[in-house]
Amino acid sequence: MNLLEHLPVLIIVIVLSGSLLCTFFSMFHRYIGKALVVACEAAAFVCAVLLFAQVMQTEGNEIHYAVGNWQAPLGIEFVVDPLNALMVCIIMLVALCTCIYCICYIQSKKWLQSGGFFTLLGLLSVGLCGMTLTGDVFNLYVFLEIASISCYGLIAMGGKRSVMSAFRYLLIGTIGASFYLIGIGMLYSMTGSLNMADMAELLQTQMDNPLMIVVCVSLIVAFGIKMAIFPFHAWQPDAYSYAHPGASPLISGAMSKVPAIAMIRFFFFIFGIDHLVVQHATLIVGVIGAIGMIYGSLFAMAQKDFRRMLAYSSVAQLGYIALGVGIANEYGVTGSYLHILNHMFMKGGLFFAIGGIQYRYGIVNINQFGQLHKKMPWTCFAIVVGAMAMVGIPPTGGFFSKWYLMLGAMDQGYYVYIAVLIVSSLMNAIYFLRVVEKIFISPAAKLHEVGKHPKHAELPLPILIPIIVFGIGMIAMGIFNGTIVDSVALPVLKGVL
């Protein structure tokens, strides 16, 4: 048996097995459970890289894997193309770095608390990868719920205030999942199939069915809640602010991006943009995305808590992704895809950085960041690069995703969207410049160290390494932007746009 033929399912099985065994082995020693999950995440990351290399060399750039050898449309199918293979690589990188990061962050001697935390981290990455790879709409729901339930638990482990935030997210997230079930239930009643490719073919004669209006509205609400785009973002600021600092990079970096991929797959790959009902649906998504870009930026400007500022910033940044869906041409959707990939590095890196500051000094208030660059140079490097990427300054990846969104809006004649892009980017610059000014120019604040770290290092290596990796990653996404667009994005999108 050639294991390389089973890479899509190996990614899921390896992490799932390690996650489920983690709590058991943590009974003997908490570091055994931690080491097991880190090793499984590392192995799955290697599998993801091999899968990406494999799909790039495959004729047609597409791999179909039938789970249990039950062929589609009756069986569950994983469908791998260059875009979702690259997405899985980045998800696994975020997950691996988060697990390494938490080796020092999670110091509880209670085996259930330590093992449970790493189990939830592993299950979250399983859910995210499964959603990205699956070619079955109900299987997508199953993985969505695995990811969501893991997310609720990780948020609740952040402290007293986080429990209510997690409960609020659970209630709103359940509403989103219910709308998704309504949407796919109607699609199943119309087509008799749950396989995405089969459904896409069967729907072409039924796109004028009035039920499609209800389907599109249900999916907009479902994915809007899971992405936390305006006006479905009510759960997000508290969840991001009060979640455990160790889990925040994975939650903020990946949890809201995978539903965005799912939305794009439904509207452009399953339904097809040529149909009037889909055009109206994407237009609505674009409009609420544009409003969210301004709304999120306004509220981010008013925050003193850096984590809360990043939370509202995410509302704005996810608005960019929704805007690309609304532009609905090759440039626009390419911009959305790029921003999804870039934002995983940007927001993951920034949450790694603020988590490092919290670990050493126990602070999140921006006003206490005075002269922080002298004490934590690598952490401040990641914050500055992250700020550049969020604003859209070259050579970071954030510049290029916004550039493609601009090109798409110009091509469609959506000049209001261009104005919104410019205004939102300027607002991003305002609130991030405030942070940079505090770090480099403001007088030094009196800080007391609360976390253990090596005498001549700013942070323990397991915390510092992910910060540096993601700081470099934000620049690398800009440098290799052309390769990603030409070799990964366009070959997949040309068939549907």
Automatic annotation (TrEMBL):
<keyword id="KW-1133">Transmembrane helix</keyword>
<feature type="transmembrane region" description="Helical">
    <location>
        <begin position="83"/>
        <end position="104"/>
    </location>
</feature>
<feature type="transmembrane region" description="Helical">
    <location>
        <begin position="457"/>
        <end position="480"/>
    </location>
</feature>
<dbReference type="InterPro" id="IPR050586">
    <property type="entry name" value="CPA3_Na-H_Antiporter_D"/>
</dbReference>
<feature type="transmembrane region" description="Helical">
    <location>
        <begin position="116"/>
        <end position="134"/>
    </location>
</feature>
<feature type="transmembrane region" description="Helical">
    <location>
        <begin position="250"/>
        <end position="271"/>
    </location>
</feature>
<feature type="transmembrane region" description="Helical">
    <location>
        <begin position="378"/>
        <end position="394"/>
    </location>
</feature>
<feature type="transmembrane region" description="Helical">
    <location>
        <begin position="6"/>
        <end position="28"/>
    </location>
</feature>
<feature type="transmembrane region" description="Helical">
    <location>
        <begin position="35"/>
        <end position="55"/>
    </location>
</feature>
<dbReference type="Pfam" id="PF00361">
    <property type="entry name" value="Proton_antipo_M"/>
</dbReference>
<keyword id="KW-1003">Cell membrane</keyword>
<feature type="transmembrane region" description="Helical">
    <location>
        <begin position="277"/>
        <end position="298"/>
    </location>
</feature>
<feature type="domain" description="NADH:quinone oxidoreductase/Mrp antiporter transmembrane">
    <location>
        <begin position="135"/>
        <end position="427"/>
    </location>
</feature>
<comment type="similarity">
    <text>Belongs to the CPA3 antiporters (TC 2.A.63) subunit D family.</text>
</comment>
<feature type="transmembrane region" description="Helical">
    <location>
        <begin position="340"/>
        <end position="357"/>
    </location>
</feature>
<feature type="transmembrane region" description="Helical">
    <location>
        <begin position="169"/>
        <end position="190"/>
    </location>
</feature>
<keyword id="KW-0472">Membrane</keyword>
<dbReference type="InterPro" id="IPR001750">
    <property type="entry name" value="ND/Mrp_TM"/>
</dbReference>
<keyword id="KW-0812">Transmembrane</keyword>
<feature type="transmembrane region" description="Helical">
    <location>
        <begin position="140"/>
        <end position="157"/>
    </location>
</feature>
<feature type="transmembrane region" description="Helical">
    <location>
        <begin position="414"/>
        <end position="436"/>
    </location>
</feature>
<protein>
    <submittedName>
        <fullName>Multicomponent Na+:H+ antiporter subunit D</fullName>
    </submittedName>
</protein>
<feature type="transmembrane region" description="Helical">
    <location>
        <begin position="210"/>
        <end position="229"/>
    </location>
</feature>
<feature type="transmembrane region" description="Helical">
    <location>
        <begin position="310"/>
        <end position="328"/>
    </location>
</feature>
<dbReference type="GO" id="GO:0005886">
    <property type="term" value="C:plasma membrane"/>
</dbReference>
